[in-house]
Write a structure and sequence with these properties.
Blueprint (H helix, E strand, L loop, with lengths): L1 E6 L10 H10 L2 E6 L11 H8 L3 E5 L11 H10 L5 E10 L7 H18 L3 E6 L9 H13 L7 E3 L6 H8 L3 E5 L9 H9 L5 E3 L21 H12 L3 H15 L2 H7 L1
The chain binds zinc ion (2 copies).
Length: 273
């Protein structure tokens, strides 16, 4: 049993065969998928909700990705505030900072990030964080410094916690987030030969504080690297973490699945749907 805690199932890469992709995930033992609702930015912010409405085992998020921060308007914030109250929306995100691509100016990324933390707090949803520093090896501290500082300032007091998604940082970054009620989600890049820093962190994060995800269609794990990623491949991330920790793929699947339901208090939420 696995949960893919982060997939962009709305992506146009799935337009031709989305149904089969979702079916394959179920065949592979993926019992729940979180459809990230960033879409292509404003105008498509309900894309996760649409998928969640169609499939019982899919949940959704809403949020504006740091890439599209420059497009965000007050009308978009108001729209998201309403969308966030819809059934099966379990988190606000992904939001945060991306200093690798710099698709939006950094000051604007910070403003839109802080604004969305305020909105998420208002609707009492945890947040899904995207943090990518500058530099070829994800080794610079810039985005981590800003991101963790802004979370400490604007979010930690809420006690609502969140997910550091597709974690690429060092253990020190994970530790700071864990201390602010976050869980750490590992993606397919934990299997990449050069990703020793991610594997080091995956060895240290407490087993009851980790999730797994695909970030599909991006970052397909070995042995599918370079192809389109899909939720069925979340198993490869579990396999890699299991190898690192001397546990079976199934044990990692079971543990991260339990973590997911506990973090989102999903049995309670299901009753209200
Ligand atoms: Zn991301
Ligand atoms: Zn993502």
């Amino acid at each position: 049993m696995f949960v893919d805690s982060h997939a962009h199932l709305d992506g146009k890469q799935f337009n031709a065969d989305r149904e089969q992709v979702i079916f394959r995930a179920q065949q592979a033992g993926v019992e729940t998928i979180v459809a990230i609702g960033n879409g292509d930015g404003p105008g498509t912010l309900d894309c996760g909700i649409q998928l969640a409405a169609k499939y019982e085992f899919i949940y959704a998020t809403v949020g504006i990705h740091p890439h599209e921060a420059k497009l965000a308007t007050d009308a978009d914030f108001a729209e998201m505030e309403q969308l966030a109250k819809r059934p099966k929306v379990i988190a606000w995100g992904e939001i945060g900072l991306d200093y690798f691509y710099d698709h939006s100016p950094r000051e604007l990324q910070k403003q839109v990030f802080v604004k969305q933390m305020e909105l998420a707090r208002g609707v009492k949803l945890p947040i899904v964080i995207h943090c990518r520093p500058s530099g070829a090896n994800n080794n610079n501290e810039d985005a981590w410094d800003d991101c963790l500082r802004l979370i400490a300032q604007h979010w930690a007091p809420s006690g609502l916690g969140g997910i550091l998604h597709c974690f690429t940082g060092a253990w020190t970054h994970a530790k700071r987030a864990l201390d602010m009620d976050f869980v750490i989600s590992f993606a397919g890049n934990v299997t990449f030969p050069k990703a020793q820093q991610i594997r080091d962190a995956a060895k240290q994060v407490p087993l009851d504080r980790m999730l797994i995800e695909t970030d599909a269609p991006y970052l397909a794990p070995v042995p599918h690297r370079g192809k389109r990623n899909e939720p069925a491949f979340v198993k490869e991330t579990a396999r890699q973490i299991g190898e690192l920790r001397g546990l079976s793929t199934e044990e990692i699947g079971r543990q991260t699945t339990n973590n997911f339901y506990r973090f989102f208090s999903l049995p309670e939420k299901l009753k209200s749907i």
